[in-house]
Amino acid sequence: MAVNIISESSCRVAIVGGGTSGLALAAELKRLNVGSVVVLEREPISGGIPRHCGHYPFGIHEYRRLMKGPEYARKNSDVATKLRAIIRTGTTVTALRPGGTLEITTHAGRELLHADRVVLCTGVRESSRAQRFIGGDRPYGVISTGALQSMAYLQNIRPFRNPVIFGSELVSFSAIQTCSHVGIKPIALVEEEDRVRVRSLLSPYLIAKRVPLHTGIRHPKIVGRETVEALEFTDKNGDHRRIETDGIIISGRFRPEAALLRASHLDVDSGTGGPVVDQTGRCSDPAYFATGNILRPAETSAFCWQEGVDTAARVANDLQAPSPHTPKVVSVSHDDPAIRFVVPQRIDTSLPPYGMAHFYLGLAEEVRGVLEARSDGILIWEKSIRSRPVRRLQFSLSEIVKPPAADDITFTLRRLG
Amino acid sequence: MQCDTFDIAIIGAGVVGCAMARRFTLDGARVVVIEKALDVLEGASKGNSAILHTGFDAPPGSLEQACIAAGYKEYLEIAQEMSLPILKSGALVLAWSSDQMAQLPKLIEKAHTNGVTNVANLSREEILRREPNLSPALIGGFEVPGEYLIDPWGTAHAYVLQAIANGATLMRNAEVLDGDFEGTSWSLKTTQGDVRANHVINCTGLYGDIVDERLIGSKKFTITPRKGQFVVFDKPASKLVSSIVLPVPTKTTKGVVICRTIFGNLLVGPTAEDQDSRTDASTSRGALLDLHAKGVKMVPELSQYEVTTAYAGLRPAAEFSDYQIKHDSERRYVTVGGIRSTGLSSSLGIAQHVSELLQNSGTQFRAVSSPVIPTPERLSEYHERDWQCPGGESIICHCELVTKREIERVLDGPMPPATLAGLKRRTRVTMGRCQGFYCTGGLAALTEGRLVRPMGSRNGS
Ligand SMILES: Cc1cc2nc3c(=O)[nH]c(=O)nc-3n(C[C@H](O)[C@H](O)[C@H](O)COP(=O)(O)OP(=O)(O)OC[C@H]3O[C@@H](n4cnc5c(N)ncnc54)[C@H](O)[C@@H]3O)c2cc1C
Ligand SMILES: Cc1cc2nc3c(=O)[nH]c(=O)nc-3n(C[C@H](O)[C@H](O)[C@H](O)COP(=O)(O)OP(=O)(O)OC[C@H]3O[C@@H](n4cnc5c(N)ncnc54)[C@H](O)[C@@H]3O)c2cc1C
To answer: Which residues contact A40 (CB under 8 A, 6 or more apart)?
Structure first.
């Protein structure tokens, strides 16, 4: 299948993706002296998403300094490089093979890289209009926040002047900032849910920026032949609305950039859209680990940076483990439609306690109730929760998985009210 | 503007116009193609299922059946030398109800009448053995081994590029507004000035009737566009079905097709919605969700796969079921109309047919003896791509693995795209799962100053 392979090489740890988590991981692995660490990054410059987040705040947790995204991305790259991690940019990983071999492509051609351990750090992207079933025409000018940021901050190019922002997550608000950077004035923010998806404290921001907000919209339809002309929808009073606009920013609804993963032999969790991992980030093939936002959509850079650092210790430990150990696995699942995902999806109780300290839960809808963990149908843990979909929920892993652990744990919900 | 007289003026650069341009250029005619849009393939040919049909289910004895059969044959003959990719998937026509089951014998018989003799009945077990991801709810079906998948745009591009390479002229952004037959030749009035030609061939698809009225003052059919919407699934879903899964048409339901695409995705569609608008190729959430559900019903595993995109195409349907190809030899005018839902497969056959019509009425050219054969980009997931060859510079579009070298070649080529949409059809940039999330910025910079419709403007300019 792999034609035209021009060379082969090997390394101790290969990191797929030189964004926040991959770079933090690379630096820490070098500090831990594991041997050769190679970061494979397909963009011409490493740094990941923060490269085109030309706004604050980045770096406070990591470097005790307030920075904008691009400076932070550079800093992460510099630290890893100084510690002699090898960062190969313009290098695309095109396939994952069992046992830790990667197929990669550069300007020169195709090669194979054999690594003792591979860590997937490919992050998240936003969902496209089709993934949200937004109908209408297909004119030019319907783009994601990420695309807008890369045009605005990396190229200083402006695709439109008066767009409508679709979505109301944090990234939707940072889209407003991106717009101001290149003299774009958003003329409305629309959301299909009944209220703003992030805490409503951001609504005053819209008022300050004089961007009208429409929540609870239905039947969105994009209109325009060559370029965007309007967004039509039914508003929450049932009235037909048409907003004349020259662009639509489709923002948020993050999903892991898991193309490689889905095409590979590794198990994928349909809840997160990322890999099935244990508490150390290990995938279904023991040569593979994953960290950062590919694990689940989506956390901040500071969070992913810390995950990268923490994962380094786990990978280093694993490399030192004397012989292949026999895992004792507790599988973790969820069976309420309101629960979108739980990470990790497996717990290997044979390992020392250096794994994640928490279960991370994602919700599909707003929930008020009691979250229960059951094993063999027996209630082993419960906690009342009241939360909205985009908020992170975390629960101490050691409180839920106690020896002697059962074979499986299922999270369910008991609703109130 | 154009002062010399062309032998043939082809109006419309859809797949039919492109094939026509190639045929007459190779026949030795001096050809001009006049297209009103900024780019070729902006009409009906923009969105279809991309199946190379055998014509097994076309009405026996129809012109459509003859053109599909001839087109199919020529396609297979030229595919290799023109580097046109083919995915030889074969098709299964499946029955999901007893109603549909009852239709099968008639359909098989029709296929045999049409000369598609390898069409054969299959047992339910055999179908499920070949396609284990199909829902066991199916009852039976038959195979059509000769139905294949091709590149809907690359194909037409290759035709018109071969015409250009052998001397044809392509005018884009030129709408034919009016025209006069002046005894021996035509004078066509276009938005880019007048064009003279000895013969005119109207290949305007969705506008066939309107252009006839403009030029010959009458029309013999009326176009009622029929929209077809599609949902495209991400590449990993393509391993779920290898054959083209075709429905059995019954009076009450039309059913949808599930098939791979040559680009490596999986397609579910189309719908069939009659409408008045000749331009409205919009999708609707309701229809897309419905297609998604139908796909999942036939292939339950599909529910686990990500959607990549959605689109719609408009079939140039007339009130007659057969093609409307009319030659007015007095006025040296040919109408090629109503090429509804098989034009991609039949276009080479249609071109042969029209070439014969002209020859039979005494028009002779001297065929080009050793025609130039350009080799445009081959974008098939099932064949070697540029990124797999050394020295592609760098990859710009990560989802579709499009190299900078490929993009540069197209931008500097003989038929550069005018819009991002045209660049997409020629290279596949931004057509993958992220829909431009990662590469839009880089692409905007790379295409700056090189598209008629730029992707943006410099801040501050
Ligand atoms: C549009 C957008 C805006 C955001 N804004 C903010 C913000 O303002 N503040 C904040 O804290 N967080 C923000 N985030 C969250 C962001 O995901 C995290 O900040 C952080 O970047 C995650 O780090 P990561 O390492 O998981 O992934 P990333 O930083 O995304 O890095 C992934 C890297 O992997 C590379 N890659 C992917 N596939 C391959 C491959 N096959 N071969 C080689 N390389 C590959 C990519 O090019 C990329 O560089 C935003 C996210 C998005 C999508
Ligand atoms: C949903 C769907 C699925 C299909 N699936 C298949 C399939 O699987 N296999 C298959 O073989 N076929 C398929 N088809 C059919 C195929 O796409 C059509 O038959 C074919 O595209 C018709 O091409 P055309 O060149 O006749 O028309 P068009 O592509 O519409 O070309 C006409 C051109 O004329 C131009 N024009 C119009 N007016 C003027 C003017 N006044 N001056 C200058 N230019 C003008 C237009 O801009 C346009 O570019 C499908 C069609 C649809 C819609």
So the answer is: A14, A15, A16, A17, A18, A88, A91, A92, A93, A102, A104, A113
Question: What is the four-CA torsion angle of A126, B440, A231, B310, rounded to 10 degrees?
Answer: -70
Catalogue all structural domains in chain B, each as residue range(s) with its CATH number. 5-48+152-223+320-360 (3.50.50.60), 91-145+224-315 (3.30.9.10), 386-447 (no CATH)
CB of B336 closer than 8 Å to CB of B350:
yes
Instruction: Look at the block and give the residue holding tokens 């059919």.
Output: B221
Burial B57-81 (b: 16+ CB within 10 A, else e): bbeeeebbbbbbbbbbebbeebbee
pLDDT digits (tens, 9 = 90+) for B229-267: 999 999 999 999 999 999 998 766 677 999 999 999 999
Query: What is the average per-residue pLDDT within A323-331?
Result: 85
Task: Answer yes or no: is pLDDT of A68 > 80.
Answer: yes
Structure tokens at B94: 């499946």
Rounded distance, CA A249 to CA A175, Å? 8
Q: What DSSP designation does B369 have?
A: S
The H or E element spanning position A366 is: none
**pLDDT score of A328 more than 60:** yes
* Band of pLDDT at residue B76, cut at 50, 70 and 90: very high
DSSP, collapsed to helix, strand or coil, labels residue B156 as: helix
With a CB cutoff of 8 Å and minimum separation 6, the contacts of A275 are A120, A258, A261, A266, A267, A268, A269, A283, A284, A288, A290, A294, A295
Q: Are B42 and B418 in contact (CB under 8 A)?
A: no
Contact B436 A108 (CB under 8 A): no
Start-to-end CA distance of chain A, whole Å, equals 57
Report the distance separating Cα A18 and Cα A43, nearest Å. 9
Q: pLDDT-based confidence at B392, cuts 50/70/90?
A: confident
Sequence-ordered list of residues with C-beta below 8 angstroms from that of A213, at least 6 positions apart, any chain:
A168, A188, A189, A190, A191, A196, A203, A206
Q: For an interface test with B, give the residue of A145, A262, A269, A270 to mutate (most B CBs within 10 A).
A: A262
Closest chain B CA to residue A247: B456
State residue B1's pLDDT score: 44
Q: What is the arrangement of strands in the sheet containing A329-334, beginning at the earlier edge strand?
A: A346-348, A329-334, A408-415, A367-375, A378-387
Contacts of A131 (CB under 8 A, 6+ apart): A253, A255, B306, B307
pLDDT per residue as tens digits for the range A99-119? 999 999 998 889 999 999 999
Q: For residue B13, give the amino acid letter.
A: A
* B179 close to ligand 2 (CB < 6 Angstrom): no
| H runs (alpha helix) in A251-290 | 259-262
Return phi, psi of residue A136, to 5°.
115, -165
Residue of A nearest to B441 (CA): A151
Query: Which positions ≥6 away from B173 have C-beta within 8 Å?
Result: B35, B36, B37, B38, B191, B192, B418, B452
pLDDT cut 90: percent of chain B above it: 95
Helix (H) / strand (E) containing B267: strand B266-269
The whole model's pTM is what? Answer: 0.96
- Which atom number of ligand 1 is nearest to the Cα of residue A53? 8
